[in-house]
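Weekly puzzle thread! Below is a chain. First person to post its structure in token form gets bragging rights.
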Amino acid sequence: MDELDHIPLGESNEYISQDEPMHQSKSKRVKLSGNNSNNNNKSHKDLKNRSEQNRDKILKLPLRRTERRILSSWKDGNRKLSVLFALAYRISVKQAIVGEHAQESIEAINDEIQNMLTYKVGHYVHYCDIPYALRRNILQSFMFVKHKETPDGRYDRTKARMVGNGANQKDHMYDLISSSTVALSSVFLLFNIASYYKCLLASYDIKGAFLNAQFGEGDETTYIKINKELTELWIKQDPTAAEFVSDRGELILELDKFIYGLKQSPYKFQQHLINVLVSLGYKQQVQDECLFIKHSGNDFSLLSTHVDDILQVCTSQAMYNELKMGLIQVYGEITTKDKADAYLGMSIERTECLEYVKLTQKGLINKILEKYPPGNKTGNTPAADDIFDTTRSTESAPVDRSEFLGLVMTLMYLARLTRPDILLPVTFLASRSHCATRHDVKHALRIVSYLQHTIDVGIIIHCVDLQIRCVCDASYGVHTDGKSHTGFFLAMGAQFSYLHGRSGKQKLNATSSTDAEILAMVECLKMAIWLRNVLRDLQITRLRPLQLLQDNKSAIIMITEPSKFKRSKHILTKVLYAKGLVIDGSVLVNYIETEEMTADILTKPKQGATFVYHVGNMMGMKWSGRFS
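Winning reply:
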């Protein structure tokens, strides 16, 4: 199984479909039950053998010979369970042309082959002409089909992608492979800037992005083998390839461009895109290398890049047109929208006045509800009062770890983007993934139930000034091991327009509630200072101090006034870090009443009107009437 170690898997991989499994037309529903008589009858041995059962089911599917051989020798079920599910959810060429959206699939496959020919990704070679020492550089290729949906769950289009099996690349075939992705807090900063300056918000998608990066002199010669099934379709579009077809009906290409699937392809394309943007007059940012800015008089254009997806925030139509034409000149066909309606899986809505931006993920929530139906469970809030209690012996039976982790990680993606109201229970349950019990499953399904009746809820951004505000809190000793819990969110402007949220168990045992607040403040300030530096480097506004809001007067005194060494020596470095920021004027600290501490819902489970009030303040729900 070592040859599959590095295959990129999971819902973030757009080339492995989770919309249409090989053996059924609809997504498989996974039933997780927290306190169920059926679960009580399951033995520990049955739960332990779940991955082997999944293996046996998948071995009955129409797998390739190599895949069947690998899975037949399966030993470490838990470590490679994700590989099984990836294979199960792959749509092959044969299945795609007879399954749902068959006509669209045929067109997508032919378009991808034509794409490879247009970009001249490689040249044909005979196997016998390849030097013996380089034959180990021949990689298998695959064609994946994906039925893509809009963020609200509607069918959008079918996309085919030809990829190389980078899992079989040896160390000598690549050097640098790490590429960056934009920080989510940077993306929300751009949304706030767009709201404040009433900017144009545009999006770009570069077709065949990776195919623009060429092999250079220092790159190892690499070949891909095209299987018989795909070779037949390939020859129809390029008859000159027929003479290179082997006796087994396969075709070999020596690559001239970096195709998808190779380990170094993301890095090579990112460097290519950086060079293009710099040539168009954009400056790459130091704090976040996926952010770019260009100034033109009083106007500016900001870019956020995430692989081949670009979000632009600009103050003039001319700067939009300039970037659009520059990208078309280099990359040819691109998809662009001068009114962006989606980015990173988020649906984007704006009011006519351009001052309000609403971000939702209804499509993802619907998929969660379909795959993990909560049944008759109800939850007006995402977290029950006993969520931190891990000592319940009556509900301590283990559950299927892979299914639990799949649900929690999907919820985590949702929580980090548009639903910070579920951050507290999701982050806590993620820390329980290695030892999940029925008690944890019950709490996970409560979150799903909560999402079911709040599916239209999202973050609404309305920025009135560009001063960063930090709302920070901590709950002392709430965990069974005596550790405290940190919660904070960063906002922009006096109206507290959302920027970033975090909730997590503290790593150190605080000896008092004041110490817990100090630990929380330091984590909050580190993130806020970084984001302030990002804003500083953009040079679009006068830099202002951070405003830190805190409800613990003792903690405020420790970082704003001289304190005795004996009282703070156990956390001296953290106190001095915060105090230094106050002294140099980077941070202003203000006290607020505990009743107004919105970050409280990120540190402990809250119920009823208190929860609704704080969620409304954090997520900007007071402006929801603007979108009705």
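Puzzle host: Confirmed. Bonus trivia for everyone else. Residues 362-452 form one domain.
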